[in-house]
Task: structure prediction
Amino acid sequence: MNNQSSNDTLAVLGGPKLLNNTFTRYNSLGLEEVEAAKNVVESGVLSQFLGCWDPDFFGGPKVQEFERQCESYFGVKHAVTFNSWTSGLVAAVGAVGIEPGDEVIVSPWTMAASATAILHWNAIPVFADIERETFCLDPVSIERNISEQTRAIMSVDIAGHSADMDALRKIADKHKLKIISDTAQAPAAMYKGKFAGTLADIGGYSLNYHKHIHTGEGGIAVTDDDDLADRLRLIRNHAEVVVDAKGVTNLSNMIGHNFRLGEIECAMGIEQLKKLKTQVESRQRIARILNKGLAGLKGLNIPAVMPGCTHAYYVYPMTLDIAVLGISRQRLHHALTAEGVPALGVGYQNLHLLPMYQKKMAYGSKGFPWTSDICKRNVSYAKGICPVAEDLHESSFLGFGICSHEFKDEEVDLIIAAFHKVWRNLEALR
Ligand SMILES: *Cc1c(COP(=O)(O)O)cnc(C)c1O
Result:
C-alpha cells in the first residue's frame, strides 16, 4: 500500500479525509423482479392461500413454484416459505415439538428472533458462548449448558459462516436434541459440500431487504424430514382448523398462525434466487481483496474460514487484539469513520443482556415463563455467562457491512488505504 499523501495526519485529528465517496446502496432488484411482480398484479391473484384443508392450503402458483425451486437449489426435500424468517423460526421451534419449559440452547450473538422464537412456545432460551473465530456456537459451551430439560439447539450461522455442524450433530445425537439452524445471514455458504442450513433438522433463510437476496420481507425454511415439513406448513396456516380434515394425530403445537408469504414476493423470490450465487460471489471477491489488503496490520484479525467451508459475507467480520493495539475499538472506529470508511459496525449486543432477559419479564408482568412451575430450574442470564460474545461486543469486534453498498474495486482499495493510514498513525491516537 502506498497511499501516503503529503499530509498523513488523521482526519479525526484534523487532517484531510481519505475517502470522499458517496456509496451506492446495495440493490439486487432489477427489471426481472419488476416484470415478475407486474405479472402477478395483472393476474389478480396476490395470494391464493386458504386456511382449511383444500389444495389451496399450500398457497398459490408462485408460492409453489418458488418453494420447488428452493428445494432444487438447496438440495432439500422441502422448502416452506414464510412471511418473514422470524415467522419461520417460530414455526420451526413449534414443529420440532418443543414443550413449555423445555430448554433450547441458543447463541447470544445474533438478532433477537433466534431466541424469541423459543420464548414464543413458552420454552426457555439458554445462552451458550460462541467461538471467537466463527462467532457461531462453541460446541464445548453447548455441552456445558445441557441440562435435563434441554431439547434442542438453535444454531446461528452468523455473519455468513456455518457453525461446526459435525460437532453439533454429535452432541445432538448423544443427547437426543433437535437442531434448528438460523442461516439468515449465510445463504449459499457451504459446509463440507452442503449448503449451510441444510444440515440441521430445520434450517432457513431470511428474505428481508438487507439480506443477500430479498423480497422486501420473507423467509424460507428447509428440511429433509416429511413430518417436520408438514408441521411447518400447518403452523404457517391455521393448523388447528386443518388437523381434523388432514388426519393429524400429533396435536402438539398445532396452534397455527398466518405466516403466509404472498404471490408477488414469491414471484420476485424466483428471480432473486437466480442471482444468489453471483451476489454471494461478488461479496467473496470483495472479501478476498480486503483479506489481501488488511493482512499484516498488527492487532487486526481478518475473518477465518474453516476447512471445508465457504463464507457468504453478510458482514466482513474482524477482531482486534486490543492489548497489541494499545487503543480502544471506539477510538479506532472513530478514526476509520472520520476517514470516510462506511458501514463499520461493532456487532451484536448480547441477547442475554437485553432488559427482557435481565428482568426475566416476557409474557405479562409476573415473569412468565421463568417464574412459572413449567420452568424447572433457575437459568442464568448474568453478565459473564458468555465471556467470548461479551468481549466481542464490548471491545474487540469490528464488522464491515460488505452487503450494504455496491462497492467498486477502487472504493475497496480506498477503504484498505484508510485502514493503513489509521494503522500508520496509531501512536498519534494513543
Ligand atoms: C435477519 C435475521 C433474522 C430474521 O429474519 P426476518 O426475515 O427479518 O424476520 C433472524 N436471524 C438472523 C441471524 C437474522 O440476521
User: Anything to note?
Assistant: The domain at 6-27+276-347+390-429 is CATH 3.90.1150.10 (Aspartate Aminotransferase, domain 1). The pocket of pyridoxal-5'-phosphate is lined by residues 84-86, 110-111, 113-114, 156, 182, 184-185, 206, 208, 219 (CB under 6 Å).
